[in-house]
Predict the 3D structure of the following.
Amino acid sequence: MGTVSTADLYDEHGDALQSCSVQFRHYGGKPSFEGTITTIRCHRDNALVKAALAEDGAGKVLVVDGGGSLESALMGDLIAGSAVDHGWEGVVVHGAVRDVAALRELALGALALGSNPRKSAKDGVGERDVVVSFGGVDFAPGQHLYADEDGILVTRAD
């Protein structure tokens, strides 16, 4: 994202952008990131997250709606490392992550509600490329997401 801040973007574009009210914590090594949204909805099962982040992610941000659960982590250092290897800009997890010390060292934007050392199930239960909603924002595949230390902005669907 360089020098453009979410606050400046909002000042310029106003309600053309959706502003997420969820107060995420920054876990990744990139404090700001942007990209085209792809989505996953899952609950305490990260198999779809792992599969998605092992695909080419150049210019993309994965938005994971884990239902806000902090019961188990949907991403850890190995999956996040795969995301870096495959060029992902960032991951937004409406749930928990783990291996937070290692995540800080990765060139990846990583936002989550919190952390939990417990692993998730790996059964592949969930949905991919669907509209997910939290914090007053509808995150739809193909929209653009901007994130920095002030928060998250998302373009509106056409």
User: Anything to note?
Assistant: Helices lie at 6-13, 47-53, 77-85, 100-103. The chain is about 20% helix and 35% strand.
